Amino acid sequence: MNDIAAVASLADFETIIEARRSVRVFDTDHQMSEEIVENALKAALRSPNSSNMQMWEFVRVRSDEMRAAMAPICLNQSAAKTASEFVVVVGRANVYKERAAFNFNQLKAEYGEDSEAFQKVKDYYGKLMPMVYRNDYFGIIGGLRKLMGAAVGLFKPMVREMGKSDTYATIHGSNSLASMTFMYAMKAQGYDTCPLGGFDSKRLKKLLKLKGSDEVTMVIACGKGKPEGIWGKRHRLPYEEVVRKV
Ligand SMILES: Cc1cc2nc3c(=O)[nH]c(=O)nc-3n(C[C@H](O)[C@H](O)[C@H](O)COP(=O)(O)O)c2cc1C
Q1: Which of 43, 140, 152, 155 has the highest CB neighbour number within 10 Å of its CB?
Q2: Are residues 65 and 103 in the same domain?
Q3: Portion of the chain with pLDDT greater than 70, in percent
Q4: Claim to verify: residue 102 and residue 217 sit in the same structural domain
Q5: Which helix (H) or strand (E) holds 194?
Q6: Pair 74, 172 in one domain
Q7: Residue 2 located in a structural domain
Q8: Residues 160 and 107 grouped into a single domain
């Protein structure tokens, strides 16, 4: 394990946490180089994610034409009208077989096919993940899986969230963590972001040519923030009100 305390401190991280704000107005005269978003995305790809399935895709929207098309889809919010680039974080529910196979093959190569370590994870990616992520349009498979889980749960602790909507919740959870890493990595390079949930998902999917089973977790507007883009102080509930010790 790296001795992280030797290279960074909580204070360094606090600086970034404190500096990141949702910025609603970006400098449209500023040229943000391609590498800024690329660097931040490379950081985001290392985020924790459920079973390392990485069921995500990050669509970069940078051309003038596509950015112009994005603004009305994002309800003409000022962040969307002034962004230098958008990153659209997409959950791809239909890539589970490939992603399970990726992990299977990586671990086989890392541990060796006959190793004890590989025997432990073989069925996880070879059988369990393809089973857990499989869904149909109507959610019937997920419903049956959930029932099966509930039956097992009568006798021992069991994950209960196994329906189709649970699959998406898991994907969006992982994608949100990657989004957060991305936004901190943008701030660490002196750039700003605004996560946007206010968009027309149907029109956005059409514009980006996404598949029916894909879902957009969030749109992240990026650029050099202007001071007027910060709308006020940060208001947060007190620690005591939202943290409970048991
Ligand atoms: C999932 C999500 C969706 C959001 N959608 C929007 C949005 O559509 N428009 C907007 O201006 N801000 C949006 N925000 C930003 C929040 O309003 C903002 O994070 C919150 O007010 C706290 O401010 P801060 O980010 O500056 O700390 C969104 C944030 C999240 C996490």
Answers
A1: 43
A2: no
A3: 99
A4: no
A5: strand 192-196
A6: yes
A7: no
A8: yes
Helix (H) or strand (E) holding 223: strand 214-223
Measured in whole angstroms, how far is the alpha carbon of residue 24 from the centre of its chain?
21
Rounded distance between C-alpha atoms, residue 21 and residue 246, angstroms: 32
Reported in sequence order, the residue ranges of 37-180 that DSSP labels E, i.e. its strands, are 56-61, 85-92
Pick the residue whose CA is nearest to atom 7 on ligand 1. Answer: 196
Domain range for 150 = 96-164
For 16-38, what is each residue's pLDDT tens digit?
A: 999 999 999 999 999 999 999 99
Phi first, then psi, for residue 183 (nearest 5°) are: -65, -40
Total domains present in the chain: 2
What CATH number should be reported for the domain holding residue 35?
Answer: 3.40.109.10
Q: Is the CB of 77 under 6 A from ligand 1?
A: yes
State if residue 112 touches ligand 1 by the CB under 6 angstroms criterion: no
Q: In terms of residues, how long is the chain?
A: 246
The tens digit of pLDDT for each residue in 76-99 reads 999 999 999 999 999 999 999 999
Mean pLDDT along residues 129-149: 96
CA 78 to ligand 1: nearest atom:
11
How close is the Cα of 145 to the center of ligand 1, in Å?
Answer: 35
Ligand 1 midpoint to CA 94 (Å) = 28
Closest CA to 166 of 180, 178, 150, 179: 150
Give the pLDDT mean for 151-155: 96
Does residue 13 sit within a domain?
no
- Ligand 1, atom 3, lies closest to the CA of 197
pLDDT of residue 1: 63
Q: Do 81 and 103 share a domain, yes or no?
A: no
What's the 159 CA to ligand 1 centre distance in angstroms? 31
pLDDT number for residue 2: 67
